[in-house]
Structures are given as structure tokens and as C-alpha cells.
Design goal:
This protein is mostly helical. The protein is built from ten helices and no strands. Helix 8 packs antiparallel against helix 9.
Length: 253
């Protein structure tokens, strides 16, 4: 092991002098190697500095471009899209309560009126915004109410949300559309997806009930019983729990 020697220290013997000489030689070689490595690194940097500066510049421009796009393009676009969504949503809400004029109101919600955009316009003109995503959901539900089931499925499949209620409703809506198209296996699959999406007092008992009914019709009594029993155990206060014992009884026959 190398030891520290004070300045002016003189070796006591020729052997110690030789040892010190070897240590000094080794140290010199190490520093020489480091100097050579540093020189090679500097040479490489000098040789490739244009590429390095170009890469740094590209990264910087990318960051600045993203920040600029988000601040000056995306944010105003989001605000404008959200404002446009307000008008067709009003028609949609009115249609849900007006049995006489519902079809025409749903049509206005889809296609717009009086110079205002409908859901379909917002989906097309404001792609990539949150409002366009919500418009896909509303358009899908509109088509479902208009009994245009293929269109309902297409738009609801295009909708994406982690929201506990809306995400489940979209998947359950696809299940409803498949059920109306007499595709019970697909309907059951989407009802199960709606159940798995989230657990809440509104959508979960709703789709447990629908899944149970479809499973019962498909002869899958054990699966149907699981759905119905969960309503009884976990959602006893729900509307779907009314008469649930009768349905559970049917799964035992």
C-alpha cells in the first residue's frame, strides 16, 4: 500500500529509494493515461461538436415547440371546443325529457343548428381535444337512442375515459347496442367490461342486472346467479335489487 511521504523526506535505504521510484513511476503512468484519455475525449468532442450541438439544439427546439404548441394552440383549441360542446349538449338533454320531439332534438344534437356545431362537427373539427372525446360519447348515446346501433357502437368504442361513471356507461352502452342487434355474447362481454371498469352505486347494479339477464338467456345460469347475488349482497338499496330473489331462483331451476 502506498504511504504518505512528507516534503523533503529522504529514503533511509536503497531499497526504500527504489520503492519510492517505482511508486512515482506508476503514478506518472496513471496521470499520463488519464491525460491521454482526456485528450482523446476532447478530440472526439471537437470532431463531433457539430453533431452534439445539433442534437442539443433539436432537443431544445422540441421542448420549446411542445410548450409553445400547448400554450398557444392546444389550450385555445380546448377552450373553443368546450364552448362549442355546450350547445349540442343542450339539445341532447332536452331530447331525454321530451318524448314527442326527441328524434328531432337528437338530430340537432348530432348535426348542429343555427350556425352552431353538433357532436359530429366537434369530433371532426377539434380532434385530439377533451371536448371531441366527450362528443364521441354523446354522439354514441344519441345514436343508441335513435336505434342506429352500428353507429352507436362505433362512436362509443372511440370514446376513452377513466371516469367511473362515463367509462362504465360507454361500455354498457355498447352492450345495449349489441343486445338490440341480437348479439347476446357480445352484449354480455361489454356488460362485464362495464362492471369491471368501476364499482359504484349507479352503474354497477345496472350492468350486473343486464349481464345477469343476458347470461340467463344464454343458459349460463351459474354466471347469472353470480351477477344477481352480487346485487343482493352489495347493492340491496338499488332499484335493481327489487325482486332479485326471483331471478336468483330462476338460476336454480
Amino acid at each position: 500500500m502506498a504511504t504518505y511521504k512528507k516534503r523533503g523526506y529522504k529514503p533511509k535505504s536503497k531499497a526504500e529509494e527504489a520503492s519510492l521510484h517505482d511508486e512515482n513511476s506508476t503514478t506518472a503512468e496513471v496521470f499520463q493515461t488519464l491525460d491521454q484519455s482526456a485528450s482523446k475525449t476532447e478530440a472526439w468532442v471537437q470532431k463531433n461538436q457539430n453533431y452534439i450541438l445539433g442534437a442539443i439544439g433539436a432537443i431544445a427546439l422540441g421542448v420549446l415547440g411542445y410548450l409553445g404548441y400547448n400554450e398557444f394552440i392546444q389550450k385555445p383549441k380546448e377552450a373553443s371546443a368546450a364552448n362549442e360542446l355546450f350547445y349540442p349538449q343542450q339539445y341532447f338533454d332536452q331530447a331525454l325529457t321530451d318524448e314527442v320531439a326527441k328524434d328531432s332534438l337528437f338530430g340537432l344534437a348530432l348535426n348542429g343548428a343555427e350556425g352552431k356545431y353538433g357532436f359530429l362537427d366537434i369530433i371532426e373539427e377539434y380532434k385530439g381535444t377533451k371536448a371531441a372525446n366527450l362528443a364521441k360519447y354523446s354522439a354514441g348515446m344519441t345514436y343508441l337512442n335513435l336505434q342506429q346501433y352500428d353507429e352507436a357502437i362505433a362512436h362509443l368504442e372511440g370514446f376513452s375515459s377513466d371516469d367511473a361513471v362515463l367509462g362504465a356507461m360507454a361500455k354498457g352502452g355498447i352492450g345495449d347496442a349489441f343486445s338490440q342487434l341480437n348479439q347476446p355474447d357480445d352484449a354480455l362481454d361489454y356488460y362485464e367490461k362495464a362492471i369491471a371498469h368501476s364499482s359504484n352505486d349507479y352503474t354497477t347494479p345496472r350492468f350486473l342486472y343486464k349481464a345477469g339477464v343476458v347470461a340467463l338467456d344464454l343458459g349460463q345460469k351459474e354466471k347469472a346467479q353470480t351477477f344477481f347475488q352480487r346485487i343482493k349482497d352489495e347493492f340491496a338499496a338499488s332499484q335493481e335489487a327489487n325482486g332479485i330473489d326471483v331471478l336468483i331462483g330462476l338460476t336454480n331451476n
